[in-house]
Amino acid sequence: MIDVLIVGAGPVGLACAIEAKRSGLSHMILEKGCLTNSIFRCPINVRFFSTPELLAIGDIPFIITDTKPSRQELLNYYRGVSEHYKLTIHFDERVDQIKAGESVFKAISAKQKYQARHVVIATGFYDNPNFLNIDGENLPKVSHYYTEPFPFYRRKVAVIGGKSSAVEAALDLYRHGAEVTLIHRGAEIHPSVKYWLRPDILNRIKEGSIKALFNTRVTRITEDAIFVKNGSEQELRLENDYVFAMTGYHPDFEFVRRAGVQIDEVNRKICHSPETFETNVPGLYIAGVVAASKGGENIFIENGREHVKKVVRHILEKESPQETQNANQNFVR
Predict the structure, then answer these.
(1) pTM of the model
(2) Which of 7, 29, 236, 279 stands the most exposed, by the fewest C-beta atoms within 10 Å?
(3) What would the pLDDT profile of 271-299 be if each residue is shown by its tens digit?
(4) Helix locations, 178-333, DSSP H
C-alpha cells in the first residue's frame, strides 16, 4: 500500500514526492510521458520568466549563469533533483481512473492497478488546449503547441493569441524567415506579456514586419487559407500555410470529475480547500496549476511548489493528529 500516490512528474509532483519522503511517507509518481513532460514540450529556445531560486525544489540550489533559465537548464536541473532524492517514478504510464474506496484509492492505468491511502493530482494543464471549436481546427497544419521556427521559413504562418506564448512564437517565426500574421480577439497585446517581449512585438508590428489583426476572431481554417471576422459579418480570407493557435490550456476536468471531485463550472475550477488542497473526496488532493481556474493564471511553479507542503502537512495531521500537534508546539518554542 502506497502512502501518497502522485499523478504527474512535473516540478510540483516532484516536490510533493520529496516532501512525502522527508516526512517518512512512501510515495510513487505515475507519469504519462517523460520527466517534466510539459517543460520538455515547451519551445526549444524558450527562457522562463521566473528566476532560478523560485524554480528550485527540495532545497537543491538551481545555479545558472543567466537570470532566466532555459528549457534545457530546467530539464537538467529537475532530472538531477529526481536522481538526488531517488524518487520512485513510473514513466509512460497514464492514469485512466482513480476510484475512491474505504480508506483506500485505486489508481488504474493501462499497465497496472495501484492502491494508495492518499492521492495527489499534480497534472498541470498543458495537455488540454482551449480549442477554438471551428471548422478546420483539426487539420494537420494547425497546432496548439509551438516548438521551433525552422520548418516555416518563407511560409505564411498565422499565430492566434495575444499573450506571451503567442508573442514569443510570432517573434521567433519572424526572425527565422516566416511571414507572420498575429491574430488576437482583444484590442491590443495582453498586459501580462513578458516585459522584455512587449516592446519587441510592438515595434515589429509598428514597422510592419509582423502583421497584427486585433479585435479579430478566426472563423474557419482550410488547407490554403484562414478566415477571420473583424467587427462585421463579412469574412476576410488570408492565404495561409500553417496555424499556431496559442489560445491557452485548462486542467483535465473530466479526469478529476470521474474520481468524484466537484467542479465549479462557472469559474471552471476544481473545488478544493485553499488551506489543505484537499478536494471534496477525502484523501484526494490537487496541487500546482491544476488548482487554478481555466487558464492557470496566478499559479506557477514557484507558488505551486508551496501547495505540497500544505498537502503533506494535512496528511500527517490526519495520520497522527496528536503527534503532529506536539511537534508543532515544539517547533514554535
Answers:
(1) 0.88
(2) 236
(3) 999 999 999 999 999 999 888 765 555 66
(4) 198-207, 253-258, 301-319, 321-332
Closest CA to 189 of 161, 159, 231: 161
Give the Cβ contact number of residue 282 at 10 Å. 10
Beta strands in the chain (DSSP E): 2-7, 27-30, 89-90, 95-100, 105-109, 113-121, 142-143, 156-160, 179-183, 211-213, 217-221, 225-229, 236-239, 242-245, 263-264, 269-270, 284-286
Q: Which residue has the cell 508546539?
A: 329
- Cα distances (angstroms) measured from residue 42 to each of 89, 207, 269, 307: 21, 29, 24, 23
| Domain boundaries defined on the chain | 2-128+249-332, 142-245
CATH architecture of 142-245: 3-Layer(bba) Sandwich (3.50)
Highest CATH level, class, for 2-128+249-332: alpha beta
